[in-house]
Amino acid sequence: MKSFKLIVHQSSFSTSDLIINLKDYPGLKEKDIVEIYHPDNDYPRLLLQVAKVDAAGRGRDTISVEQSIATTFQLRTFADVYVNIVNVADVALDSVELTFKDQYMGRSEMWRLKNNLVSTCVYLNKKIEYCGGAIRCQVYEMWSQGDRVACGVITEDTKIVFRSSTSMVYLFIQMSSEMWDFDIHGDLYFEKAVNGFLAELFAKWKKNGSNHEVTIVLFSRTFYKAKSLEEFPQHMKECLQKDYRGRFYEDFYRVAVQNERYEDWSNVLLQLRRLFTDYQKIVLQYHERPNMEIPTAINSTAAQGNFLEVLNMSLNVFEKHYLDRCFDRTGQLSVVITPGVGVFEVDRELTNVTKQRIIDNGVGSDLVCVGEQPLHAVPLLKFHNKDNNLNSIDDYSMPHWINLSFYSTNKKVAYSNFIPRIKLPPRKSQEPLRKMYEDERKGKLLKEDEYMHNSIFDYDAYDAQVFQLPPAHSTCVQRVTRTKKTSVAGLEGMNRRSPPTSTMHHRKMSDPDIHHTVADILTNSGSSNKQGAYDTNSDATDSPLSSNRLSPRSSISSHKPVIRTGRALINPFDPSHVTVKLTSNRRRWTHIFPKGPTGVLIQQHHYQARPAGEPASRTEEHRENNIPKENGTSIINNNHSIYQVDGNVMGRKRMISASGTLAVLGVASTTPSTTNNASLALLWGATGEQEWTPALTTGVDWKSLTIPACLPITTDYFPDKRSLQNDYLVSDYNLLPDDVNADFAKNRAIYKEPLTTMEVFKELVSQRLAQGFQLIVGVNENEVIESHCPSTAAPPPSKVAPQIGKQSNAAPTKRYLLSIGRIFHKLTLVGSTITVTRYRPRHPYPPFNIHYRYRFHAPNHDTYEVSWVSFTTEKLETYNWNYMDHYICTRGDTDFALVEALKYWRFRTLLLPLNNPATKQIMEDETTHCDIYPTPTRHDLDQLTDGFLKMTEQYFNKVKRPNKQRMAMAAGGADSALTRRRHSTSTSILTRNQGGVSNSPFRERVGSTRLHDRPRLRMEAMVAVKTVLERTQSQTGESDDTYDDGVLEPKLKANATLVEVVERMRSPTLGVGFLQQTVSLPSHTFVSIYAIHWLQANMEGVTYEKATSIMEKLLQERMICHASGDTSKRFVVGYYMYHILPQKKEKDSMPEYVKPLGDLQSFENEWMEVEVLGPRSPLVPAGSITGAIDISGSSPVTDDTGVPAFLCDNIDTSYMQLGSDSDMPLYKNTHLDIDVNNKSDRIEWGHARYQATFRPDQAYEMCIQWAVASGNIVAELIFGWARKAQSCRLQMVPIPADPLALPFTLKSDPLRGPIYVPLNEEPLLRSKTALFEGFPEVTWLERLFLFQEAIVGRFGFIKCTVESTSHEAGVGDHLYVHVTGNMFILIPTTVKSEQKALRTKPANRPLNSRYPVHPEAAPSPHEGYITRHVTGKNKDDYDNSRRMGFLWSWNHMISKKLKSSQTPATGDEGFQMRMLRDFKHFCANHEQRLSQFWDQCWELREKAHGIQSC
Asked: What is the spatial distance between Cα 823 and Cα 474, in angstroms, rounded to a whole number?
């Protein structure tokens, strides 16, 4: 110990927390941990790690500490402090909580960060950065030796808990009948929930800086008093469900807030209060119609509500976290707020599904009760009793996977501080009771002499018998004598009536975890002061006893024997003695709990009330979790002791001796043991280690609700040897990364540095963690190795087997154990061989699939719509790990493509035009209508195409241009710096001179009004050409007149030979401009669309078609070839790379010629190539040239004369069909170098899936996919692209995997749905019978569609041909996205072949089928959706014509990080609501807007016809 002067420094002066001169403290070494404290202060001592050895001290015997740390630990500047070297073991932390916000941290990153923190020193609020600052978090809380501490050292064994202040939170408020009751303070339970709990929660969020993405849903169940379905009118039958007791019910969900992030939630509280006022009335009277009888509707109680269904709803969303990956939040939490007390009546199968899904998905589930805490253990699930037998026994379960909180207001009642914990039933008159007791003839109750007087009935004895375990074998059952003085005084006086006891044994309780378990360890019941004893082998259970044979050793049962089900009954009023065999499920979340002073895991919101005068140590001293032992051997290992079915054992933790102190049988209880290797856990509670007593008060777990914990990356359960042999199947396979990569390197066209064996090994662990596995720590490793010996058949022959045998000389270098559910993986690395051993259950759970129908009302909707959903459990054992491991090993080789079943992460984006003046106008002027978006002009479309080509070249393909050859770049200046291309091995440079002219990529319209065929020069092109000219003139003194043609040398003649064309292309100054040769590009590579531009500029009389056909000829003559060397494909115009082939005679003169790869697949895996087409026109061009690809520049909505397409005569009848008019696939894939800034500590990669064709009038989709990459690094790449896109006049917007979320989609979001906007065509019909009367009937459907397309175009929507998950092929639904990216519109259409049938289908069809399908035609499911909307809203059936309309949905993927100053409307809520409101008004013909638009279109048509006729 030594005294120093303390000074402080800013972090800008030095990044290290502590500056100390080692000379001042003899024996101090780098990495030592020192404690620093004022001698007179008892504030926690600060621990810091000595960092630099050569840190220059600021004077002798002075140490400097970073200022904020000194402030936190109240260290005074210039005062004396003691510095002392401490032993790491003394300050090692048990657990550390780290918080982070506004980022996505995957589980693999958590593990790598944890490894990075081992043997470092942390203190309160320490900021931690990782991966070059891509990952940031802060120390929140630390626990060591049972207490919270202010600093400490992280060791290998420290548990690290990650808590996220930006999670996805679902708040479900149960609007059961109790919400309208009053609590003891006279508040409505709803007020207590909203004004109390939610208000307090939101205040805590604000204080903590939590910024969750929140969805709030009110839900309830309505029962109908009806005996049969016939009592319901037709419109109600659609969504009715029937429960196990034959009651009809419907479930209602009202989504109040959907995926919102607010700084201030007070408005939401207001909104919830508004919803509350009408909620019950609307839901109960929802189906009422005038002049119609409907069955009475009743709101259910909390216990009978749709509690588990609600949890499953959120799981359907949470399960898809890898599909719509958001980069600024991590973590998932569903919170149910109920006015009940934590007891729910549930279906057993649904319980099992819910439990398995919640645990497997690692989702936090919190239950907040605003009712009073009952006197028994909760949460309590009572299973529906489907057995009609009178004395069948009710079965219960205590779910440990629900974190329970009780919210109580801190109001005081003046006259008392007593809080009643039971709700008294409403007072009834005495009449019915008297009647009940007299009604004995019906045999409902027992005869008088068959029940006993109250005073002598030994209730404890009865209970003990009911809750006793049935004996399976009688080998090792201890008998403990237990005496109770029974008063015999009242034996004769048995004539007083008492309520019958027969209901008593209808209570039984069991947990799904202890399903078919029969165990013969005697469970002791009763509390410590009342001890009686039982003979477990007596048959008292089955023999009906007459009332006079009463003895302390047996119990009374009624005239029916107690029915034993082979399962233990658990007393919810005293669950503390019941233990269950540990399972991995039980321990899945335990590592988020800190260890309390007694060495057991505690939940911080449980408070123990202690009776006065009782010693504190009583319940804590002997907290042993050991198994009761007998004769020194543990019962568990005794073959006869336990009859086991499910791998779960019931036993009891300890006997309670008569004196009232606790002692564990046969074990001297000294130190509390941790539960790591014990096999039992308490049945009740999330930790399984905290004991329940009636005095245990549960508060609110604010921490879990404010900064929810992510699923911990470690757990501590591994099955014992016997269980592994009996209950698991073993399989293994080997990976030899070096051999695998040697094979793959041979086939690879482009060499990439393969991963080392160690990197592969770590990545295998990372991937398993990312898929929800947990690392198993604290398990004795030797046992695990031996446990590989199979019990029955030998495992598949393993190359590593001999090494495992010779344990002595070839010890494994590294081993990890991982688990999820009942699946265990052991990864072993020996030398250069990785062995993966998989244990999976011999008897897996059966898969469940539960269908559920409900009504929900989303924001901006008008009604409660019918929807349906499936709740399914996932079979985790079917995940193809072998394939995934090879994917990792080969660094994502094309042989191992990512497939859906691997659940890889993806992020879908659209490229949209950057800004539209109309958007700006709508944002600035509150009064303007929103249908003011102009049709894009030819110039706009050219600009978009140029921007897209620039984006592809510079950012997706990372090609840059060198300075010296950068002549006139008409597309705008490009950066000169050369940066690393995709593969670190190559830099490719594009050198190109376009002769100064940038041309439109589209040929002129045939018969257009423009006279000259020469490409128009745009303004920037003019400027660029001028500079080029000025430069060349100063060199050659040429005259000005070349400016007219924009070309500096005589053009090629129109009849020039192909050889001349190629020669000119090669010219160093006037040529087409080549990309620099790189590893994967051959010599003389050029880009196809630029070559077309070049030909148009450098050859006389060349149109777009002619240029294309010249290039096609060059390709056929083998003068040019695709840059991959592939010769089978046609010449594609767009960003496609071709190279000039050397001709025979030139071969010798070109020794430096580099050949192409010769492997198309490898080439496509390196480069992004996109075909560029013009807008697709709905009109058949007059005299169009067949054969040439039509890149006509016509805008798709009108023909040349401005007549809207839907009124033109020459409609292209195939326009509506979505089939691509190109021979390209819809999407192509390429490899993506993710870690462009070299921040990661591992090799990372991903893939891009991009649309193969680009059209300037459509949105362009690109999806980024990854498995081996850190979320934050992927995010940096994408946000980088989004910024760069703006310089290309584009904006990059994320979109959901399922834009419309219709219930037809597998796994669609059950609480989201599109908004139906009907199109009111009645005012347009006027005297006509059909809208397009007078046109050929065959074109009506097309015209209607084009009319709808024209409307969405006016509102700024553009076509977006994304894959949709929501319909099968052949159903042509057209999706449009708004230019701001805020919303989607779908125009439902019907496919060609069904047109005839469509017009003749019956108008009023019943709606009782699951999908509304007509016999003649199958329209798109969305039409069915619309029909359901219409018939649901307006109660009479409509004719077809009313079914015109649109489906509108929001883009919920836009996040704060993607909003920019250049696109103020993107993600702006006010703008979004205005658009929807205005669109609805327009379609409903408010202010005659729709009619006016229609009339204007007809005027244009008539005008055009007039011109033609005269």
From this structure: 34
Q: What share of the chain is helix, strand, coil (3-state, %, to 5)?
A: 25, 20, 50
| Sequence-separated (6 or more) residues with CB below 8 Å from residue 1330 | 1340
How far apart CA 1040 and CA 885 sit, in angstroms, is: 67
CB proximity list for 532: less than 8 A, separation 6 or greater: 458, 460, 461, 464, 482, 483, 484, 526, 552
C-alpha atoms less than 13 angstroms from C-alpha of 836 in its C-beta half-sphere: 25
Q: Are strands 33-37 and 403-406 parallel, antiparallel or unpaired?
A: unpaired
What SS3 class is residue 1164? helix
For 222-245, letters b (16+ CB in 10 Å) and e give bbbebeeeeebeeebebbeeeeee
Q: What angle do CA 230, 235, 236 make, to 5 degrees?
A: 60
How far apart are alpha carbons 380 and 1046 in whole angstroms?
Answer: 83
* Model pLDDT, residue 1048: 53
For residue 892, count other CB atoms closer than 10 A to its CB: 22
pLDDT tens digit sequence for 350-378 = 999 999 999 999 999 999 999 989 988 88
As a whole number of angstroms, the distance between CA 1453 and CA 1293 comes to: 8
With CA atoms as reference, report the closest residue to 1348 among 1378, 1383, 1314, 1318.
1318
Count of alpha carbons within 13 angstroms of residue 1027, beta-carbon side: 12
In this structure, the number of other CB atoms found within 10 A of the CB of residue 406 comes to 20
Residue 1218 has a pLDDT of 58
- pLDDT at residue 516, as a whole number: 34
Burial state string for 1199-1232 with b = 16 or more CB within 10 A and e = fewer than 16 = beeebbbbbbeebbeebbebeeeeebeebbbbbb
Q: How far is CA 1149 from CA 383, 1114, 1118, 1121, 1153, in A?
A: 87, 21, 19, 20, 9
Residue labelled with tokens 């599909």: 323
Distance CA 123, CA 73 (A): 9
CA-based R_g, the chain, Å? 38
pLDDT value for 1454:
86
Question: Could you give the angle at the alpha carbon of 741 between the alpha carbons of 737 and 746, nearest 5°?
Answer: 165
User: What backbone torsions phi and psi does residue 1081 show, to the nearest 5 degrees?
Assistant: -115, 135
CA distance 1391 to 1363: 17
Q: Residue 935 CA to chain centroid, in angstroms?
A: 38
Residue with the two structure tokens 């449009």 = 1376
DSSP string computed for 435-486: HHHH-TTTTSS--GGGS--GGG--HHHHHHHHTSPPPS--SS--------PP
Nearest to 378 by CA among 683, 706, 704: 683
pLDDT value for 526? 33
What's the rounded Cα separation, in Å, for the pair 35 and 654?
42
CA distance 1377 to 1359: 6
Q: Coil, helix or strand for 747?
A: helix
State whether residue 965 is helix, strand or coil: coil
Average pLDDT score over residue span 870-876: 89
pLDDT of residue 1422: 57
Q: Which of 883, 852, 905 is nearest to 320 (CA)?
A: 905
- Average pLDDT of the segment spanning 1148-1153: 64
Residue with tokens 């006197």, as numbered in its chain: 375
DSSP tally for the chain: helices H, then strands E: 31, 59
> Which tokens hold the place of 768?
């398993």
Tell me the pLDDT band of 194, cut-offs 50, 70 and 90. very high
CB of 23 within 8 A of CB of 4? no
Arithmetic mean of pLDDT, 438-447: 49
Number of CB atoms found within 10 A of residue 1493's CB? 18
pLDDT at 643 over 50: no
What separation in angstroms does the CA of 813 have from each of 270, 764, 827, 1061, 1440?
Answer: 61, 16, 11, 65, 72
